[in-house]
Amino acid sequence: MISLRIDDTPVQAQPGQTILDAAREAGIRIPTLCHLEALCPVGACRLCLVEIRNWNGRLVPACATPAQEGLDVVAHSDRLAEVRRTVLELLFAERNHICAFCVSNGHCELQDLATELGMDHVSFPYRFPALRVDVSHAKYGLDHNRCVLCGRCVRACADVEGAFTWGFAGRGVHTLVEADLGEPWGTSRTCTGCGKCVQACPTGALFEKGKATAEQEKRPEVLAEITERRPRA
């Protein structure tokens, strides 16, 4: 077993576990957005940043940093709260996340995090580039304007379904999640129509057709349930 401290609480971790794994098993809440059980960690959103006291206060993503013997981790502080609120503000400023008109209003992880972390305004200029909405698929739609580029759909399609339909294209504010290297989703030759990407999406970017404002509820935990049932090699 690995022994470390998180917020001055002694914590035990198994070899191979991350700081986030250890914190969750100890009942210590660390906010996340890009992380999802059953998917490989990427540390993309930076909302799970924690401070390592014995690494000169360095900030590292808890979801992608292995638990190590003797680490002294700070998961909650004024500094971290400010960093996390800033990350959220940047996400809200980059694309159109006006909740009142979103299918996921009331069922959105981004919205929930804003409430949890006390984000009551956006300090940065809104960018809101005009991005397309792809409704070419028979059952699902993709609104790029509400995408936070967490990559959960990309990893759900690759890690759980094995279809490898989704990928990233472009750079900076012009980065998009694309099906089959830029083809309309409805013409994809790799998509199986399983909907795992929709369930993995934390916002209203991926949605089921026919859902109106606040009607899109999702079950991202179903991905872990699927992988747990699979025979282990």
TrEMBL record:
InterPro entries: 2Fe-2S_ferredoxin-like_sf, 2Fe-2S_ferredoxin-type, 4Fe4S_Fe-S-bd, 4Fe4S_Fe_S_CS, NAD-red_Hydgase_HoxS_gsu, NADH_UbQ_OxRdtase_Gsu_4Fe4S-bd, PSI_iron-sulfur_center. GO terms for molecular function: 2 iron, 2 sulfur cluster binding; 4 iron, 4 sulfur cluster binding; DNA binding; metal ion binding; oxidoreductase activity. Residues 79-118 form the 4Fe-4S His(Cys)3-ligated-type domain. Pfam families: Fer2_4 (PF13510), Fer4_7 (PF12838), NADH-G_4Fe-4S_3 (PF10588). This is NAD-reducing [NiFe] hydrogenase HoxFUYH(E), subunit gamma (HoxU). GO terms for cellular component: membrane. The keyword Iron applies. Residues 138-169, 182-211 form the 4Fe-4S ferredoxin-type domain. The keyword Zinc does not apply. Belongs to the complex I 75 kDa subunit family. Its main location: membrane. It is found in: Membrane. Its cofactor is [2Fe-2S] cluster; [4Fe-4S] cluster. Residues 1-79 form the 2Fe-2S ferredoxin-type domain. The lineage of its organism: Bacteria, Candidatus Bipolaricaulota, Candidatus Bipolaricaulia, Candidatus Bipolaricaulales, Candidatus Bipolaricaulaceae. Keywords: 2Fe-2S, 4Fe-4S, Homeobox, Iron, Iron-sulfur, Membrane, Metal-binding, NAD, Repeat, Translocase. Coiled coil: none annotated.
